[in-house]
Amino acid sequence: MKFLHTMIRVTDPQATIRFFNLLGLEERRRMENEAGRFTLIFLGVPGDEGGEVELTYNWDPEEYDGGRNFGHLAYEVDDVHATCQRLMDAGVTINRPPREGRMAFVRTPDGISIELLNKGGAQTPAEPWKSMPNTGVW
User: Fold this and answer.
1) Cα angle for residues 29, 33, 38 (degrees, 5° grid)
2) From CA 32, how far away is CA 106, in angstroms rounded?
3) Chain Cα centroid distance, residue 85
4) What confidence category does residue 81 fall into, taking pLDDT thresholds of 50, 70 and 90?
5) What is the band of 90 on the pLDDT scale with cuts at 50, 70, 90?
6) Which of 85, 95, 107, 133 is the most buried if burial means most Cβ atoms within 10 Å?
7) Which value, to the nearest 10 degrees, does the dihedral of the CA atoms of residues 130, 128, 17, 47 take?
8) Does the active-site annotation cover 115?
9) How far apart are CA 24 and CA 44, in angstroms?
10) Averaged over 52-61, what is the pLDDT?
């Protein structure tokens, strides 16, 4: 058995692609289906041919809720502090900062929760993260 992908519905593909690019994912392929009125965009981690994130964009406007019920996507990152700083510098809210140097949560533009786990376990707790409060839900 092999994990293939996780699908999330998005309302603004470009904003969501920018978000995942900030995390380090790249677009691998895209399929437009005129008859079904949707676009599928597959993203993955460079050098890792494993599981992908499939963004499904329905051309006819829809509102999605319950993103929290989905759970979350989790990614291992080389440096959780540096990753959070890069995201925050780009305007992404750090919903659950890596206070203990190991885990953080952010959300995509459509409210999907993303867990960031530091490779190799916890780093030494550091500011501004160790005293930063949670923002919103994660």
Assistant:
1) 90
2) 29
3) 15
4) very high
5) very high
6) 107
7) -70
8) yes
9) 8
10) 91
pLDDT at 7: 87
pTM score, two decimals?
0.73
Instruction: Return d(Cα 58, Cα 138) in angstroms, integer.
Output: 25
* Cα dihedral 110, 16, 22, 90 sign: negative
Of 27, 54, 100, 115, which one is the catalytic site residue? 115
3-state SS, one letter per residue, for the chain: CCCCEEEEECCCHHHHHHHHHHHCCEEEEEEEECCCCEEEEEEECCCCCCCEEEEEEECCCCCCCCHHHHCEEEEEECCHHHHHHHHHHCCCCCCECCCCCCEEEEECCCCCEEEEEECCCCCCCCCCHHHCCCCCCC
